[in-house]
Amino acid sequence: MLMLEAEGKALLAAARIAVPPHAQRVGDPAALAGLPLAFPLAAKAQVRSGGRGKAGGVRRCDSLAEAEAAVAAILATRFGGELPDGVLLEPWLPIAREIYLAIVADGAAGGFVALYAPEGGVEIESGPKPLRYEIGLPRDFRAHEFRRLLEPVEPDRALRERVVALARRLLQVAAAQDCTTVEINPLVQLTDGSLVAGDAKLVRDDAAAFRHADLAAALAAERAREPEDVRRCQEAGLMLVWLEGAVGLVSGGAGMTMAAMDAIAAAGGAPACFLDCSGNPTPAGFGLAFELLDRNPAVRAILVSMFGGGLHTDRVARTLVGILAARGPAAKPVVLRLQGTGSEAATAILAAAGHANHASLEAAVAEAVALGGVAEARA
Amino acid sequence: MSILLGAGARIVIFGITGRFGSVSIRDLRASGSAVVAGVVPGRGGEIVEDVPVFGAAAAAVRETGADCALVYVPAPLALDAVLEAVEAGCRLIAYPGDGLPVADAMEMRAAARGSGAWLVGPNSPGLISPGRGKLGFMPSFCFRPGPVGLISRSGSLSYEAAFRLSRAGIGQSTAIGIGGDPVKGVTAAEAVALFHADPETHAILYLGEIGGTDEYAVAAYARRADAKPVTALLVGRTAPKGRKMGHAAALIGGDADGWEAKTAALEAAGVTVARSLDQLPAAAGESLARAGLAPAPA
Fold first, then answer.
1. Cβ(B198)–Cβ(B3) under 8 Å?
2. What is the CATH number of the domain that holds B75?
3. What whole-number distance in Å separates Cα of residue B291 and Cα of residue A312?
4. A289's torsion region: left (phi>0), alpha (psi -120 to 50) or beta?
5. How far apart are CA A149 and CA A143, in angstroms?
6. Closest listed residue to residue A96, CA positions, set A150, A159, A42
7. For residue A149, with 0-12 CB atoms within 10 Å meaning exposed, 13-18 middle and 19 or more buried, which class applies?
């Protein structure tokens, strides 16, 4: 789970890592008049989308009136489609320099890596690749190895030592809080030489919620904010992501669901969703899938493609026959493709109820795209 | 031959008294592997099917000669079970479960490699060397013995792909599910190196997806002058940026995570990248022809 800047900085501050002092988060411009504010200050949109700075989400304010106007403007703006969850007010920092420092869980390293770039800030993506120090397990961090990496690019000994010490502290936060990313960009060097986290992007590992009460609560709150259909799928063990197309895809397994999405696009159509039913291939699971796809007006046809490994497709066939019989006459057309374990019985069960079972994914996709309308024909 | 798992594997199942225990015993035995022990803390002395259950892995290994572990325990308990299997001397350990904290995957991987053992998983169906044995739960009927080394980040995709290959007469030396998580045991880089060293593997088939950097490791291998022919299929071409597609690691953050960049890198390295599942058997067949082999009769 990606944390908001204010939440991430609170975790850093708790580990006694320097963040801007006297920060306050507000959700209403009228609240500013009662706050002890010092000017100039920075008003910063609290959003998870990137590119906030370039979109007017960070503003300098030199007076209460300016701050009230900035907060009102930010709260009314969508950043990457997302309305801010409050505005963070911080002192405007006397910046001497902006640096990039991150601790990231990395598959190639089999553990954490530290990333460092002498020039941080909003242009980090387009600049040269950051230096990379492969740490591995947190206990394998070696200050002298990281220092050796920094020496060619950071001749200032005092700064270098501050960065090395901070990297260890960030790593400790990552380990203690189960973060997969702790990114400080910019890491601000103030005019007095000290370092302070100008921004904070912390990503916590959802899978570790069983050992963090605060993360479990944050995830529950996030689920509660999800659209109702996505939330119901999560509760039922289905994985749903709505997409833009017209072919409602019901599949099994993340890889095969993506393969079927790609096949739909290759046939000239577009998938309406990523919907993986392998977590709950029961009447309740498939029933929910059909309910949501039938109700979504963008969906013109439904394709069920399941490959039976451990799953018995004859059982799926019986389930589908029941669901299809209960749908109204105006229901959307359905294309079925059940292959693998039990598929001969599945074909017979479907045929007895008047449904065809396609032998191949490609043939099923072609028919679903023909029924669902090609991509160009969509409104 | 095969990689990691050959004939004669002696398996200990952690969590053997659970939901998958009995089914898994029969399935693994049918694949050629021997299931010789179970481990469930506090339940030593019980019998599941005809397999003795031990309260600790050390006793199971000592008394049955088990050398491979299949760990069926929930994610919060998985790190401890895998560490126990490593310290008991298991040389190959599969942890199929998903929802494992990344920090625990790091610890598991480091413990296994530090002892010279291999971990497969998390979030993986395990591995199978068709006709010789299996350590996991993939459906055996999809696979047949043969010369292709198969590596997959996705279980479901590997079943369907192997089923199509097998039907086309293209069998597999070993099929390994490296899993859909970012930090894992055997990585794509390690899997290609293992297949490279296996004299019975003549070509490599890699099933990848968006997100992560495994595909670049495969490309790095394919650039070697002595590389075996590599074929690949990458799924997620139509996945939108910034949305997780089921697997923890199937997420496009930057351009390098996307289908286009990965396909370009693999093709520049000489990898044949199939554009769809139905192109896969022909593409794999061509890679075998380059290695001087023809598909077996279907």
1. yes
2. 3.40.50.720
3. 37
4. alpha
5. 10
6. A159
7. middle
Rounded Cα gap, residues B202 and B291, in angstroms: 6
Q: Are B264 and B271 in contact (CB under 8 A)?
A: no
DSSP helix/strand/coil, A162: helix
pLDDT given for residue A374 in this prediction: 59
A259 with B159: Cβ contact below 8 A: no
Alpha helices in A90-240 (DSSP H): 143-150, 157-176, 213-225, 228-236
A357 SS3 class: coil
Pair (B71, B177) in one structural domain: no
Enumerate the residues of chain B whose CB falls inside 8 A of the CB of residue A341.
Answer: 139, 141
- Side by side, the strands of the sheet bearing B133-136 are B133-136, B126-129, B172-177, B145-152, B203-209, B230-235, B272-274
Q: Is the dihedral of CA A92, A98, A104, A106 positive or negative?
A: positive
**Which residue in the set B183, B210, B244 is minimally distant from A107, CB to CB?**
B183
Residue B236: give its domain's CATH number: 3.40.50.261
Domain A21-92 has CATH 3.40.50.2000: no
**Predicted confidence (pLDDT) per residue in B155-165, tens digit:** 999 999 999 99
Q: Which of B72, B98, B156 to mutate: most A Cβ within 10 Å? A: B156
* pLDDT exceeds cutoff 70 at A309: yes
Please name the helix (run of DSSP H) or strand (run of DSSP E) that holds residue B191, with its range, or none: helix B188-197
* Radius of gyration for chain A, computed over Cα atoms and rounded to the nearest angstrom: 26
The phi and psi torsions of B51 (rounded to 5 degrees) equal -100, 125
The closest CB to that of B76, out of A105, A210, A239, belongs to A210
Domain that holds residue B167: 138-290
For residue A201, give the 3-state DSSP assignment: strand
- Identify the CATH number of the domain defined by range A227-377: 3.40.50.261
Q: pLDDT tens-digit profile of B67-124?
A: 999 999 999 999 999 999 999 999 999 999 999 999 999 999 999 999 999 999 999 9
Answer yes or no: is pLDDT of B130 > 50: yes
pLDDT above 70 coverage of chain B, percent: 99
Provide, for chain A, the percentages of residues in helix, strand and coil under a 3-state DSSP scheme, each rounded to the nearest 5: 40, 25, 35
Percent of chain B at pLDDT exceeding 90: 87
Closest CA to A114 of A41, A187, A188, A212: A187
CB A247 within 8 A of CB A368: yes
* A378 has pLDDT over 50: no
pLDDT (tens digit per residue) in A145-195 = 999 999 999 999 999 999 999 999 999 999 999 999 999 999 999 999 999
Report, as an integer, the average pLDDT of A104-110: 94
**Looking at residues A322-343, what average pLDDT do you find?**
90
**What dotted CATH number matches A1-20+94-225?**
3.30.470.20
Smallest CA–CA separation between A58 and chain B, in Å?
22
